[in-house]
User: Fold DNA-(apurinic or apyrimidinic site) lyase from Microbacterium horticulturae.
Amino acid sequence: MPEGHSVHRIARQFARNFVGREVAASSPQGRFAEGAALLNGREALAAKAVGKQMFVEFDGDLWLHVHLGLYGAWDFAGEILVDPTIASANGRMGQTNQRGTDLGDRVMDAAGENSLTSIGAPRRTRVHVRMSEQTRGLDDEGEQWPPPVVGQVRLRLLTELTCADLRGPTKCEVQSTDEMLRTIARLGPDPLVGDPEEGEERFTQAVRRKRTAIGLLLMDQSVVSGIGNVYRAELLFRARLNPHTPGKDVPEEVVRGLWRDWVGLLKTGVETGQMMTMDGLDPEDYRKAMASRDDRHWVYHRGLPCRVCGTSIVVEEAAGRKLYWCPSCQA
Assistant:
């Protein structure tokens, strides 16, 4: 399932490429035909993410609310302006974010960071070139525009330059402003939404009053927004915290440390597009980690001994999801 960093990246792509433009909306699959009809021909006014939920505002007091869930993904085509605050954001964005990234010819600076993050001006990336009248529906590379519908597209949003196709979401609905605000009110704090210090207080109070295991609380989107299976495992390991510890038994300073670590990891995830959770890597190891998930996590999905102590990583079921942790480092 896409975690918080992926959804923030997608929202920023919508803000860059759809906001301020009239949008044609359709439901090629047919399952969102009524909702698409409500949005069709309206101007997109804003786009934002809160945890794993994305909201796009349209004129007429309408909001598109999307939760990708386990199988959802957005596919972008056309002329895409990449938000300067993120390393790259063209092509497929969604559940595929967990696969390794082909670094290709990307330039990496001395610190191993993707150099696009340091460029202030937008970068124009062509995935498909917009058609001209002379080509009768084909772009100058012979590709059709708008691109043909492939698979079960729940929602297609289209401007003159950019196409976004949504497939397989858990939630896709049109809301009023009041309904959108009620949805957000049910969510826990997100470090990139509102005041992080207020978010820290909300998170700390929510955790410290519950007997639920901290490993479950971190996945509870009413406690904290955006954390999924990967970040849950990595945050707990980085804190050397047993996932079965009741929230109320976790020392306050440790709870606050979890939040502050989440603030940093989320920002890194938005900038790079990867859940980089290992610190202190040299440039070559950073390159490897950015290219391969197995090289950028401490315990998640690790079928090898703990990187720190050599103990076998435990994999168990926790509320229907796999939980990875080291029984020695996190005793």
